[in-house]
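Here we describe the complex-level prediction in full. Unlike the single-chain runs in Section 2.1, the two entities below were treated as one system.
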Amino acid sequence: MTGMRRPTRVLVIDSEDIVLNSVVRALEDNKHPACEVTTANSAVDGLKLVREKIFDVILIDVSLPGVNGAELLRRIKSTNPSIYVIVMTGYTLDKALLTEVSKNADGFLLKPFTIGEIKSALSSILKSSA
Amino acid sequence: MAKLGQPNYLSLSTRISILLGSIILITMGAFSIFSLMKQEENSFDAVTRNTLLLSQSIEKVLRVSMFRNRRDEISAALKDIVGEHGILSARILNDRGIVKFSSQPSELNWQIPLSNKLCQNCHPGGSGTAVYAPNGFYSHYFDKAKDVLHSSLPVYNAPSCYKSNCHASESGIAQNLIPDVNVASGPYHDSTKTILGFIEINVSTKGVMADLERTRYQLVILTLIITLLASALAYFSIRRLVGKPVKNLVEGTRRVAQGDFTYEIPAGKGELKILAESFNHMQNQLQMTEAQLIESEKLASAGRIANQIANEINNPLTGIIIYSERLAEASGTGRDMSEDYETIRKQALRIRDSVRNILSLAKLETSRFEQTDVAAIIKHAISLVEKLAGFRNIHIISKLNSNLPIISADPGLIKQVMLNLFLISSENMSAGGVLNISAVFNRESNRIEVRIDDSGKGISKAALAVLSDEHLNTNLQNIDRTGISLAVCKDIIALHKGKLTAELKAGGGTSITFELPA
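The structure predicted for the assembly as a whole is:
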């Protein structure tokens, strides 16, 4: 990694705008770590962005309506294996999905989360990769 | 499709009884017909034999009386025997078929034509020349219409017949036995003749026929009685031994078809017992499968509802928490609002924890026990929490004994307990620390003992109180989030008939232990 100069490029994929906006607001101070946040409110848009642009970390809700979360995760990883994925999830996940998701996820974030929680989730990933 | 249990068919017992009755009837009938035929044959043989013996006796009387020239004795003998043993009439003919002696005087000198059935044996077609008849030949036939046996015994020529003269020694008078042959003296009978005459006896067979009729009647009655008795016996035996168990089985099958799996078939004997046992086994399997289906249905719908609730509540809460945090940071001017924002944030967090725990309690209602490897669950739970941000500075040390038995438990719930306990520890060690996890199998108590030790600041007294008061977990308002978490864990362990305890360590930190029966 090139250190703290370049902000971390973060993509957030969630079906609800309130979640997308909250992540943007939580990271907008651009400190600890400095982030550049892009959002997508559907799996299709998210995958399109992953193919077109370069991201360091993807925050994704695997229980998006009408989407197989595990399959989505696999596609993201196969498009860009070096990308970090943090799975945002509500309380429930079915067993099979959890098993599949935990294979490809680099971190978990339980919804709802605080600014502190999202920041430490990001920094622990970036730190481990540093 | 055939409807079970509809009374539109003959019962099994009735059908088998009818079959058995028919078999007995046919067997007995065949046997009766055969024995009747045999008896008839034997009866007629006996009549024939008796008649022959009688004819031979008459022949002896005839010869003796001939030599004595006692014609009256012959006629008297013939009259005497009529009426005895069913004898209707008796006569003696000469070789030309002319009646010489008879029990009926009216037929004397009557010539029997060769067309007579008795003559036909030796004179077929009424031929005057007789075919050869061996000595001892006896002609007879049954007139079935009149129930009469006609018999004719030839009287063969003998030296005594043509050598002796017929002058009776007593009277000295020559007697011409056959008046139309004019022989004055000397041997009377012609030595060239083979047959001198015939002894004919007619016997009524009415008595024999009546006996046969009576026997036939008795056999028919006997056959019917045996058939009826055997069928009735078979009917009641089959009804008792087969019919009732089969009826039970039919009833059971019908109930199963209607979705009632509770009907247990009483065990019979032999194959029927095996059948009943198999049926009951199948019934239990169906019951279990149905229960599992209902259970998984419940789980699936509970899962869907929980998922929906989680999204509906958690997503807005994410917004509330983050926006209030941002507002608190930004409120630098004018009246200090940060305390108000902090209140909003805290209340939002409280809702978050309540939702998580309510969902845990909901999960308890649909627990599903199966063969569970506790060690594997602990390892999996560790691998999950290791990735959480809160565990960044926590060093996890696990010592899981290799001899932990597989136990009956709900793996999802046990994992929930492990995750809850790990999260409680991590909250108490926000500045980092060591988390010790150990699991051993206590052979004496036959229980798996799991212990989680942290080096944190220790859980609150209120949270500890939860474990000592069974009713507190219904009153969520007065307990902190650690307390609610512990209450959920305690309930889950209690559901597994185990026990969960927590204590504050003297040197700081918390030690939580739970036991699960093997």
